[in-house]
Amino acid sequence: MSKFDQMTAAELRDYFEPQTVLRTITGSTSYGLNTATSDVDEKSVVILPKRDYYVLSQAFETIVTHEPDHEYHALKKFMNLANTQNPTVLEILFTSERFVTKITKQGEELRRHRDLFLSAACFDSFGGYARQQLMRIKSGLGRATIEDNVKHLTETLERIIRTFDLHYPGYKGGVFLVQGVTVDDEGKAAIDLTVNYDSLELKQLAGMTAELTNASKNFNKMGARNKRTEEKLEKHAMHLVRLMKMAIEVLATGQLNVFREKDREELLRIRQGHYTWDEVFEMVAALEAELRAAKETTVLPKTTDYRKINELYTDLMLDWYS
């Protein structure tokens, strides 16, 4: 346990304030989709004092406080998450300036190089988050079929495997495939894999299988977790459509639009229940087709340039400590 786990939300904010290089308002407020009851959530990117890096315990990466939510990410963790096209992390770099509540010259440099973190992998990351929202809705409505569950879990596992080359140097030296997925009547999943390597570090294999195992565990919990009110499901639907529209835009234009100025009214109408669920599902199916088309003609590079991102991290750290 680190010292941060024992600190209150107020103590964490006081501690991280002088170490913060970038802090933004996030969530519904930054999308322009907040209501009178919405919390104002924030995320911060921090660089710790050297003393807190030179410890035997695991280095600080991320900690979250609640009511309202505030996420603190160490710079390295933040940049690694952004490099995987994580939507809730990328939005920090692309949100409107009016939602930036603190920024240092290191934070400005990070936002200036934000395009480094965009690639065609946005199809998987944004689309994956959207499909999770879709399954939450269908599960909550009792409309998720076994076929829906098998398709969703299979796509989730394959999407995770497609990111392995970002984290595991030995991944491309063999075969790692989802061979089959079955889901029983109670929603419990069984997964068959084909894994074939002449040589692979145990640590890498353990990491890869742990990611897939966690996805399976989360899937098995989904049915019980998603007995939600209609209002909650409509909020999921709004964010599902928002994510898909953002993904289509960024793939087609190379621009990530966080504030939903053009489609704000439509998204709020979804949240307010002005569409039937059949209409929502039809809308999602049409957006899915647009998303796949945008992937085929995207202006974004196939992958990010890890060398440039690593150089940026080094430069920011050296500048902060100089």
Automatic annotation (TrEMBL):
It comes from the Bacteria. Pfam families: RlaP. InterPro entries: RlaP. PANTHER family: NUCLEOTIDYLTRANSFERASE. This is DNA polymerase beta superfamily protein.
